[in-house]
Write a structure and sequence with these properties.
It contains 2 helices and no strands. It is mainly α.
Amino acid sequence: MRGPSPYDDRVCLRTVLAVPLVLLTLAAASFCYLAVTIRPSGPWEDDARAGFHGRRRSGRSMP
């Protein structure tokens, strides 16, 4: 009889290394999805939105 083949060890090693890689990739993809889809909303956003749309609180138009 022969001993265990090196092919069996490679399959096990691929599986052991692939599982954390897949989990990390899924976690990174979910964080990217959240970063793109979630929009902050609160009183701190009023000034930023006013500046973004070209309005100032004093009522003057931007040059």
